[in-house]
Each structure stands twice: as structure tokens, then as C-alpha cells.
Amino acid sequence: MVAQNSTEIAVLASNLVKFFGRFAALRGASYPFLAGNLYVILGDNGAGKSTLLRVIAGLMQPSQGNLEVLGSASLRKVAQRVGYMGHAPLLYDELSGMENLRYFAGLYGINDDAVCRNAMQMVGLDPELQRRVGQYSQGMRQRLSLARAVLHNPDVILLDEPFSNVDVRSASDMAAILGRLRDAGKTILVITHQAAVMENVADAFVHMSAGKIVSTTSNNPTPAKEAGMGRPAAESATARPR
Amino acid sequence: MKLLPKVFIAFTVAALAYAAYQALVVAPTEQTMGNVQRIFYYHVPSAWTAFLLFFVNFLASAVYLWKRNTAADAVAAATAEVGVVFCTVVLITGPIWARPVWGIWWTWDARLTTTLVLWLIYVSYLVLRRYSTGSQTALLAAALSIFGFVDVPIVYMTIRWFRTQHPSPVIGGGSNSGLDPSMWPPLLWNWLAFSMLAIILVAVRYRLQRMEEDVEQQHAQVALRGGTA
Amino acid sequence: MSTLAMTRATLMKDLRMEWRSKDAINSMLFFALLVVVIFSFAFNPSAEESRHIAGGLIWVAFLFAAVVALNQTWARELRNQVLDAYRVSPAPANALFLAKAIGNFLFVSVLEALMGPLFIVFYNLRSVGPPWQLAVVTVLGTWALVVNGTFFAALSIRTRNREIMLPLILFPISIPALLAMVDSTTSILTGDASPDFWIKMLLVYDVVFTAVCLLLFESVLNAE
Asked: Regarding the domain delimited by A9-236, which CATH topology (the fold level of the hierarchy) does it fall under?
């Protein structure tokens, strides 16, 4: 719950449309995600939340519409500054925690073991643990997946259901970590069904339904957040605190 | 139907009829092979038409990879299918001609083998198009088309060399045998007629593909507006 | 990190994982052995004749073993959808392709190292021509199969019958390379002809198709 003083837009979604055959997963999703904020994306199954996140991460191209991440329309260029945690673990079961992180760190040009150790410690895992990830508990796996998503110090962090099947303690630990990352200036988008876990750290709750963003609920008592009600991006492009 | 296509179809029918007349009546009977040789006027133009269609497929695939233009992909799909049809004609008329004349159904000479490999590559292309899931069929097929196109000259040169090492009968008289001047007109007429037929078939198939895309677009628009398709 | 360094990192990771689980290599080795034995039953000529057909038999056997190996190229990346993690990162697509291709090359080479001697034993083979030429042909031929195979394995991920799609697309395109491998092997074994042209042709094939694969892989990787 940090006072919002930044009006910079980290992720600008304008009328995003995504078809899978005849099914429209996104039907004109628009929203300016402001930098340094933690957004929780809520909605029923099939509302298009995961699709939206995958499009922002660059894993899918939108069928129509525009997307800018950190000021760039080309997502390849800003890949170094974006972290993604998918619904699936995105980890190698046969390798240990540190081995996984070392490999993924290498993909981002990081060769320093210390970075991986710090990432593991930050999420509450023991870097010395030789156990293969395939034998981790779900809570440990999600923590490691989070570590993988943030170890290259990205400015934008995208998380798809990080708390699914995770024990209460791990979930609240991870929520606290996300809050700290937000305090450090990161922009965080979290999809979850467990809004309660994020209550203390979220800056805003964004509601999606049937492929569109339909409303936003500010979580901050200070009237510093604008609440975009699915307006076209052109209007809210120059977002100012109201 | 608009006027131009009607006229074109009329001309094509006329061309096919005249070309058949040329091949079956006007052309002289071949010295050693007799009337069976007249299959040549179907075999060779089919081959040229098939190669031309496959070349267009390569161009369309390259354009698609460069611009992601769905019209290019439709052309690629159409030319591949029609090309396979003409190529099948080549592979069937070849043995039919060879058996009575040379006593063998098949030989692994450079031209026939290359045609067979080309046919295999494009059948695999069609299979890939049919069985690909997801929205990226066009991209995957275009990639395969590039591979196929690059492969064909390599195949031809490889077999040529193989055949200098291990000679075997060459159907059709080899690349050195000349053609009696009076045989050129029926050959060229049939090529013209087949090319025109190919254009019609490709155009029809192209239209079909575009109409299918249109239907998908309509469904998509409905889905976008929030109805159930 | 440069493309080369990332290729190496991905390759090392794959080798480490394969070494740990050994699930693919063990069944593959046994499959390779079975193929050789069955071929030996099916084609059981005298020692003199065998030199003439061994080239064809060996390469067909290698081809089948290679296809089974190639089919699992991307299986590991699709588990847990971990390929998404690679795609999201700034790492170049070609580093991934090269790592997989080289890994497959090593994999298939191990299988060939097992099958080759077995063929020699079962067919009482002796090479009339210099054996180092056989090594050159094997290396070039294996790369020809593996480079296209790795690419087409990536293509087949997005098809309905993945396992059959790979050989279906791979075989027609590989025909010239196969002919070169078979004829050069036979030429060397029998000493009847020089394999020089074939070796040059395989080199050209390898260079051309490696270039095509590298050009097109990024688009294919990011196809949804």
C-alpha cells in the first residue's frame, strides 16, 4: 500500500482481441497498467485472464489490437525486463533447484551463482537442497517458479495463479514477497482466484469477464488511483491520479 | 459468374479440345513406338504444369513467410493440391507409356525419380496442412514448402550422378534425344491447354479457401460481439 | 551471453538431464540392437554379397533408430510447459535449435556406435576402402538426418499425430542424403568407386539445410 506517485504506464493494452479458431478469448481488452503497482486480475474461468497474460508476456500474438510493454511494441526487445510465471511450473523435474535457476539465469545473461542463491533464499528455499524439483511439494515448486521469474530483476512481473494448490503459509509468504517487489518499484500483474491472500498488498483489483476488462477496484484508501472502467486506451493513455 | 472467367473457361475447353485433336489425330505416328507414344503429349505437359504449380507454391510460401499475407497462403494451398493432381497424372502416365514400349513399368532415372520425390514431398505437405492443429497451419506449411523447394535441385543432381555410376534405362529417350519438329505443336498446345486448366482449378480452389476463411471471420466477429457462434 | 554460450548451456543441461534419468538412451540402445538383429535375420546373404547391400541396410537401420530418437527431442520441453520459460526469455531461438540438434547428433551417434560393430559382426563385413572415409560419411550423413529431423520434430509438435508426422515429412526431404549415404558406404565397402562426389554432395546438403533450418526456426518456435 504505497502511495502511487508514478503515472508512467508499464503495460498498455489497447483493444486486445485473441481468437482460438472461432472462440474469442479476448474481445477488446484494454487497460493501462501503471508502473510500480501490484494489480490482481480476477474473473471467472474462461474470462481470458491467462490469455491476456500470455499475450503480454509475448507467448502469443494478439489477433487484433495493440500492446506496449515498457514503452516498446516489440516484446522481444524488452524480454530482459519481463518475468513470467505460468500456470504450469515451467521447471525441469530432473534438475535440482539451483540447477534450474542457473540454467534460466544463463538465458538472461546472468552467470553469477550468487544471484540464484539470493533468489532461492528470497522465496524461502534452501540453495543447498539437492533434491530434484520433481520431488518438491507444490508449495516449494511454486516458490521456485517465482524465484525463476524474478531472478533477473525484471521491471514487469506476470504471474498466472501462483497460489494454486499451495499451502496457506507459502501463499502468504509469496504474497509478502510480491508486496516487497512492488515496493521496490516493480509492476506486478497477478492472476488468482484467491483474492483474500492479496488483500494486504494489492494496489488494485482488475475484473475481467468474457474477454474484456470490465471494472477496477482500487485497494488504496488514498484517492490516488484512477479506476478505468474499460474505456478505450486513447482516453486513459494520459492517466493521472484523480 | 462474371464475364472474364466465363470467357476464360470457354477458351480453356476449346484449347483442351483442340489440343486433344492435335495429339490424337494431327500428330504423326511415332516411328518405333506407334500410337502408344501419344501419351507423351499428356505426360510431358502434365509434368511441366506440375513443376510450374510447385514453383508458384514456393513463391507464395516465401511471400507468406515474409508478409504473413493470408491470400498468399491460399495460393499456396491451392497450387499444392492442384500440383499434386498433375504430378499424379505424370506418375501414372509414365508407367503406362513405358510398359508397352520399353517393357518395364518403372526405372529410377533422374527425371522420374525427381518427380516421385517431388510428389512425396508435396503429399507430405498436404498431410501437414490437414493434420496441423492450432492457428499456425499456414506458417508450418510454408516452412515445409521452402525445404521442399530447396531439396528438389539437390535430388535431381544426386540421381543424375547416381545414374552415371549405375546406368539404367531412361524412359522417354533421355535428355539428348531430339523431337521431330512436327511433334512440337501438339506438345505445346497441350501444355497451353493444361496450364489454362490448372489456372481454373487453382482459381476455384483459391476461392474456396478464401470463402472458408471468410466463414471463420464471420464466426469470429459474432464471437467478438458476444454471441455464441 | 552469446548464442554459442547459450547453445552450450542448453546442451549441457540436456546432457545432464539425460545422464540422470537415462530413460531415453536405455530403451533406444535396446531398440537399436533389436533392429540390427531383425535385419540380420531378414537379409542373410553370403559375405561377398553382403558388402553390396550392407550400405543400404545399415543406413535404413540408422534411419529408424534416428526417428525414434528424434521423436522425443522436444518431449522434455513440453513437460511442465517449460518451453514457455525459454520463449519468454531474451535467449535466441537458434541457440535452442543448435543445442537440440547437437544433442540429437550425439545421441544418434551413440546408437550408431553400437549398431555399426554389430552389423560388422553379423555380416562379416570388411571394408575394402579406407575406414576413415566411412567415418566422414557417417558424420555428414547423421548430421543431415538430425538437423532436418530436429526441425521437423518442432513442426510436428503442433500436429495431431505427432509421432507419425515426423518421419512422414522427414523421409521425402532426406531422400537425396540417404542415397548419398547408402551409395558412398557401398562404394567404400566394396572399393568399387570413389565416394568423393557423395561426400561433397552430403557437405552441400548439410550446409544448405542447416542454413534453412536456422533461418526458419524462430518463426516455427513461436508458432502457437
From this structure: Rossmann fold (3.40.50)
